Amino acid sequence: MIAVTFPDGASRQFEPGVSGLDIAKSISPSLAKRTVAMALDGELRDLVDTIDRDAKIEFVSREDPRALELIRHDCAHLLAEAVQELYPGTQVTIGPVIENGFYYDFYRSEPFTPDDLPAIEKKMREIVARDAAITKEVWSRDQAKTYFTAKGEAFKRELIESIPGGEDLKIYRQGHWLDLCRGPHLPSIGKVGTAFKLMKVAGAYWRGDHNNPMLSRIYGTAFAKQEDLDAYLHRLEEAERRDHRRLGREMDLFHFQEEGPGTIFWHEKGWALFQSLVSYMRRRQKAAGYREVNTPQVLDRALWETSGHWQTYRENMFLTKTEDERIFALKPMNCPGHVQIFKNGLKSYRDLPVKIAEFGIVHRYEPSGALHGMMRVRAFTQDDAHIFCNEDQIMEEALKVNDLILTIYKDFGFDDVVVKLSTRPEKHVGSDEAWAKAEAALHKVLEELAARGLKTGVNPGEGAFYGPKLEYTLRDAIGREWQCGTTQVDFNLPGRFGAFYIGADSEKKTPVMIHRAMFGSLERFTGILIEHYAGHLPLWLSPLQIVVCTITQDADDYAYEVAAEARKLGLAVDLDLRNEKITYKVREHSLAKVPALLVVGKKEAAERTVSIRRLGSQAQSSATLADALAALAAEATPPDVKEA
RNA sequence: GCCGGUUUAGCUCAGCUGGUAGAGCAACUGAUUUGUAAUCAGUAGGUCGCGGGUUCGAAUCCUGCAACCGGCACCA
């Protein structure tokens, strides 16, 4: 006999081989009816699975959050069945659950288009209505291979072949349709319900490898209840309203045009925002002991050969040939330039660490399909720095960088940060010993960060070609993750360039170089901020902070005075004296995301007050001109200046 | 780079099976002097992404290219 323990702590004896369903039935038929799966010792399993050892069991109803994965997984199968019913000859491949939904990849000579989706979805609803039972069978590898080969399912056959021999395969059957699958699944296809929607089609390489054939992928989402689906679709609309490309246009920050794919035309206001970020970072860095420099935009090919960029990344570099046949490259990174500055003039061990910073504009010829607004561009500004130090200083310096990064993210309201270590990639330069040392150093740092309570992780094989790195990912206001900051330990480039310092023993020593960026790309960070704040920039970052709006012409003189006083305090002010209703002005400036409106009419002019309306609120308050401006000026002070 | 889609006025979009373009908002002009998210009336505005082709005739059909959008791959 085996002991099965229930969530309430009660325990009962059963014969080995009893199924979850049997147990549920033994408790009550209604429980058996509403249960869609079970969790055995916390692991989600099919209800029909048998139990042959002591275990904790939980019955999972359709409404249980854990059932959502099953609903989505079954919905992927449902999609596949519908597609094969409607489009015979289409081959199935894989259909996993992903964040917010699922997809299924098909192979078909003619890829699916968005126009196909309504018909497929309709068919899916028909199949749901049939409510066929989902049953599980265990097949041998050979049996499965024979079956899918005979059916012409070449991709499934390949999948089966990649499964280690000896393992039995699970087949899930729903009505006339079946698929090879790991499971678990719901008891019947009708349990998927109707709160699902096909979202989009896309091409995707078989097994994620661009050397493989391209499959036709259909994305969908599913929820337990219609209201959850509606809420999700609403969230998508919200995200769309935050899109920095849209807000950039609406707020008159920047634009793109055809002649400069992946490059930004910054308008006055956008550039003011950009410059606020640069000034802020410049102050923070200076306080942390960095020395700001500037290095050439265009450098001889030979330098990139020395660094290794030429060999590794030439096809992604912008190249230019001059009349005398010399080949130059627009810099894709700042590090070689900074090494040149380090090398210029003899350095002693007493000088270390040397921290060289630059707001360096780099050009990278990104694949056309990768471009995405300001998030992925071909020319961007890095808040780049290189710390030249000795091996013993790595830990301390990396921790200082860490502290600075966290301070900076906090100033923008990013408190949820994850740090991941990326280790040696296939394409790399340098010896195994150097890599081992560098990775060991960062591992130690990572452990220290974990000990301090930071969320940490590892991305194997994701390092830079010259060294491993720590990558900082932050989470924005609507829960999306953005990888921004990076700390990279490099035992390679300084040596390749022959950089050295004189050690305490009077011998030449090769320094270690730590590459680090905090915003990463200023352009991208600006885009992230726009979306994070949904355009409602905090006062200290807003390019236009105040608009003084008059109610009638009678207040014009006073409005000029208000604006002049505000400017004296360094606030960015516009005047709206137009002959329009105040409702019109409020609407217009609210849509333009102006953080503060100072409304003045006859009353305010007489009393020397202002009526204050802040973006995002319908409320108005009144204050004397001096008090109102003092409060706004205080709020407009950058956080690092406030600290000082 | 690969797959699919899109490209018409400053913005959002309409324009069916080919008969040389239309709306709303914005802009401009005039009237209105207004109390916290759209005052009224009028006017003007378009190489229909770019190139080639079919046709008596192309925004519409075919074709090449580009940019953008959604994914995939890539991201030093």
Automatic annotation (TrEMBL):
Q: Cofactor(s) for this protein?
A: Zn(2+)
**GO BP terms, alphabetized:** threonyl-tRNA aminoacylation
Q: Where is the Aminoacyl-transfer RNA synthetases class-II family profile domain?
A: 262-538
Where primarily located? cytoplasm
Q: EC class of this enzyme?
A: ligase
Q: Which residues form the TGS domain?
A: 1-61
Q: How is the cofactor bound?
A: Binds 1 zinc ion per subunit.
Pfam family name, one: HGTP_anticodon
Name where it's found. Answer: Cytoplasm
Q: Which UniProt keywords apply?
A: Aminoacyl-tRNA synthetase, ATP-binding, Cytoplasm, Ligase, Metal-binding, Nucleotide-binding, Protein biosynthesis, RNA-binding, tRNA-binding, Zinc
Q: Which GO terms describe its cellular component?
A: cytosol
Sites binding Zn(2+) sit at 335, 386, 515
Give the reaction(s) catalysed.
tRNA(Thr) + L-threonine + ATP = L-threonyl-tRNA(Thr) + AMP + diphosphate + H(+)
Q: What Gene Ontology molecular function terms does this protein carry?
A: ATP binding; metal ion binding; threonine-tRNA ligase activity; tRNA binding
Q: What is its EC number?
A: 6.1.1.3
Family listed: Belongs to the class-II aminoacyl-tRNA synthetase family.
Q: How does it assemble?
A: Homodimer.
What is the protein name stated in its UniProt record?
Threonine--tRNA ligase
What species is given as this protein's source? Methylosinus sporium
